[in-house]
């Protein structure tokens, strides 16, 4: 694998790339087409940017509107090193915070570019009308997120993702109106078409008719999000899935860092077996909220009746330098440790308290409501509890996937012409993502990186023979997609897809979630194999191959069963603890992660060999020239 990192000093690499990238002249752009799968921040911004340049774009999403992409669910903010607070922020500091936050398991060049492009994103969003919070003077306001000691997070109350997506949506719809973007809603990608080693199109299913359709292009972009929904109970919407990237993986695109899955520390706790998802409460709440549990295990008193000396503010105790703003992986594991030790609270004893009484006493209720009002309202609607009067109940929950399809510096996968953006790729976060870097990566990939790197690739395709949907590769891909549909419909067992999804999710959370062990992972690999066999014996898909949400679920769960096994193999092969990957056998005396830089300072990229064949590991060594590998400490 060639990461294609440009030469020169770290701070000059992106400028060097842009200066030497090949271009396509305006007349030729009209002759070329790009397919974009996904209309979240990464997909919408990429499609709009390429169309603005003059390329024809086919854009796909499975939702009924591109505005329903899951980017709307991101609440707390987007990072940028503007240093508006004059508190010591800089491109380098943001770069280092991100590298350290990912536990030194990401590429220096990609992360530096992310930090470098962050400032321009804020200007772009403001120009689009994104209503970021402002101080009384009119300047944009900032707050802090976990893993940093400066204020670099720009926010629009607790709905930053939604507001940023509205900006990208408007840019996208402008291009739809001009005719440069053809938007295909309610269409799900079922397969990637590869011709002579290059991505040349996709097979999609019209979810309103069940009809399979073919689309050809000169390049394909996957911006279809992450696979955190594999755990079933997660902060992701029910429709989120991994099928687009997994089908591309089976056509030759490597999957990288697959077991690096982030568990968010501030979700609402599970309240029963009836739930299909969990609700995320923004990490920004940790700016003013203090996290604690009763000092006495099994304490059932009302939180307001527990005096200060009998409360354990465990993050402030264990990580005094960062306190309640410790990174997500550390905060989640610390919460799990307290819950497992018998200090959990709530009806199921699976939560901790997030307390705003001190902040309300110092700043007043109106100020807290101004910053987090919609989050408090949402919390009360869901739980019936007024969090201004008593602490919130929060709990760790599966959230963001740092792993995804392997990409080089240009965001191209191991399949030429297949570009992967946002959470669908592995590129920027290493083994743990810092809060508010998710919206940033999606926007930077779509607005500032792909519009340079995709034309550079397309310049080399100008003289290539055009591939149309009549090519035999499309016949084969469509036949395979139809065969899979027919297989799922023909099983006619007695169990719905949700049964298998729930069982897979529970197994993964127990064995490949907040903590992992050799014994647990080996058991999970064995049991996932057994569950997969049962799936193909006992699956029951009601309905036909027309409009059928159960069929959609079944196809996605089939992919999850294969992906889940790879996640466990990836975690088993990495005999160290780093970031969100916490192997119980590799920890310090005080329970912190113990990295092994000598043997595992690489990104694990996996090649598909077949449904019943083991994946092949291709390690990409990580070279650190600007930062020294050090023990990650937030104490």
Condensed summary:
Helix content is 37%, strand content 14%.
Fourth-tier CATH superfamily name of the domain at 264-398: Succinate dehydrogenase/fumarate reductase flavoprotein, catalytic domain
CATH architecture of the domain at 264-398: Alpha-Beta Complex
* Largest sheet composition: 5 strands, parallel
Quote the CATH topology of the domain at 264-398. Answer: Flavocytochrome C3, Chain A, domain 1
Quick one: how many beta strands?
A: 19
Give the structural class.
alpha+beta
Q: What is the 3D form?
A: globular
Mean pLDDT: 96
Helix content: 25-40%
Which CATH C-level class of the domain at 264-398 is it?
A: Alpha Beta
Subcellular location: Cell membrane
EC number: 1.3.5.1
Keywords: Cell membrane, Electron transport, FAD, Flavoprotein, Membrane, Oxidoreductase, Transport
Family: Belongs to the FAD-dependent oxidoreductase 2 family. FRD/SDH subfamily.
What structural keywords apply?
single chain, 635 residues, alpha+beta, Flavocytochrome C3, Chain A, domain 1, Methane Monooxygenase Hydroxylase, Chain G, domain 1, five-stranded parallel beta sheet, five-stranded antiparallel beta sheet, 17 helices, globular
Characterise the protein shown here.
The chain is an alpha+beta fold and about 625 residues long. Among the domains are: about 265-400, Alpha-Beta Complex (Flavocytochrome C3, Chain A, domain 1), CATH 3.90.700.10; about 475-595, Methane Monooxygenase Hydroxylase, Chain G, domain 1 (Up-down Bundle), CATH 1.20.58.100. Helices cover about 35% and strands about 15% of the residues. The protein contains 17 helices and 19 strands. The chain has helices spanning about 15-20, 25-30, 40-55, 90-100, 110-130, 160-180, 245-250, 315-320, 330-345, 355-365, 365-385, 440-460, 470-490, 495-510, 520-540, 550-575, 595-600, and strands at about 35, 55-60, 80, 155, 180-185, 185-195, 200-205, 210-215, 220, 255, 260-265, 290-295, 310, 350-355, 390-400, 405, 420, 600-605, 615-620. The protein has a 5-stranded parallel beta sheet with strand order 5-2-1-9-17. Strands 11-15-14-12-13 form a 5-stranded antiparallel beta sheet. The chain has a 4-stranded antiparallel beta sheet with strand order 16-10-18-19. α3 (about 40-55) links the parallel β1 (about 35) and β2 (about 55-60). α5 (about 110-130) crosses α12 (about 440-460) and α15 packs antiparallel against α16 (about 550-575). The chain is globular.
């Amino acid at each position: 694998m060639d990461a294609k990192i440009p030469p020169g000093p770290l701070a000059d690499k992106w400028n060097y790339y842009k200066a030497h990238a090949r271009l396509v002249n305006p007349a030729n752009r009209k002759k070329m087409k790009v397919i974009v799968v996904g209309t979240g921040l990464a997909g919408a911004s990429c499609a709009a940017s390429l169309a603005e340049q003059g390329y024809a774009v086919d854009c796909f999403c499975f939702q009924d509107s591109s505005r329903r992409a899951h980017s709307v669910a991101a609440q707390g903010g987007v990072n940028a090193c503007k240093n508006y607070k004059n508190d010591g922020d800089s491109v380098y500091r943001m770069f280092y915070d991100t590298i350290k936050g990912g536990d030194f398991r990401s590429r220096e060049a990609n992360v530096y570019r992310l930090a470098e492009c962050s400032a321009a994103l804020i200007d772009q969003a403001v120009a689009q009308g994104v209503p970021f919070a402002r101080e009384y003077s009119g300047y944009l306001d900032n707050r802090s997120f976990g893993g940093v000691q400066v204020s670099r997070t720009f926010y629009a109350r607790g709905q930053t993702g939604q507001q940023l997506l509205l900006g990208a949506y408007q840019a996208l719809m402008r291009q739809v109106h001009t005719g440069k973007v053809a938007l295909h809603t309610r269409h799900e990608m079922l397969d990637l078409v590869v011709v002579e080693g290059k991505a040349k199109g996709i097979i999609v299913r019209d979810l309103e008719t069940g009809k399979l359709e073919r689309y050809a292009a000169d390049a394909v972009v996957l911006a279809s999000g992450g696979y955190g929904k594999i755990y079933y109970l997660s902060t992701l919407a029910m429709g989120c899935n991994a099928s687009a990237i997994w089908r591309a993986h089976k056509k030759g695109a490597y999957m990288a860092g697959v077991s690096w899955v982030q568990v968010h520390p501030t979700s609402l706790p599970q309240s029963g077996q009836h739930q299909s998802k969990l609700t995320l409460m923004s990490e920004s709440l940790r700016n003013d909220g203090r996290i604690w549990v009763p000092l006495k295990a099994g304490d059932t008193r009302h939180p307001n009746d527990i005096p200060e000396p009998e409360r354990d503010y465990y993050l402030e105790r264990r990580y005094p330098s960062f306190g309640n703003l410790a990174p997500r992986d550390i905060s989640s594991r610390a919460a799990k440790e307290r819950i497992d030790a018998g200090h959990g609270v709530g009806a199921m004893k699976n939560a901790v308290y997030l307390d705003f009484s001190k902040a309300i006493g110092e700043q007043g209720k109106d100020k807290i409501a101004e910053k987090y009002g919609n989050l408090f309202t949402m919390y009360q609607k869901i739980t019936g509890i007024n969090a201004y009067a008593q602490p919130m109940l929060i709990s760790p929950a599966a959230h963001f996937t740092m792993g995804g399809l392997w990409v080089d510096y240009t965001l191209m996968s191991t399949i030429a012409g297949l570009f992967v953006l946002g959470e669908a790729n592995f590129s920027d976060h290493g083994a743990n993502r810092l809060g508010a870097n998710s919206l940033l990566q999606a926007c930077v990939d779509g607005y500032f990186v792909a519009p340079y790197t995709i034309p550079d690739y397309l310049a080399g395709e100008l003289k290539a023979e055009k591939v149309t949907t009549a090519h035999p590769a499309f016949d084969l891909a469509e036949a395979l997609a139809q065969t899979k549909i027919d297989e799922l419909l023909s099983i006619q067992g007695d169990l719905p897809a949700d049964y298998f999804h729930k069982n897979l999710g529970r197994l993964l959370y127990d064995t490949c979630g907040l903590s992992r062990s050799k014994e647990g992972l080996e058991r999970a690999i064995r049991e996932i194999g057994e569950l997969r066999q049962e799936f193909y014996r006992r699956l029951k898909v009601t309905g036909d191959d027309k409009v059928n949400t159960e069929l959609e679920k079944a196809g996605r769960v089939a992919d999850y069963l294969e992906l889940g096994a790879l996640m466990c193999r990836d975690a088993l092969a990495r005999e160290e603890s780093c970031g969100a990957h916490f192997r119980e056998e590799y920890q310090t005396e005080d329970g912190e992660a113990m990295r092994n830089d000598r043997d595992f300072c690489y990104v694990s990229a996996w090649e598909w060999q077949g449904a019943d064949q083991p994946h092949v590991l291709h390690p990409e060594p990580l070279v650190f020239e600007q930062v020294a590998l050090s023990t990650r400490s937030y104490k």
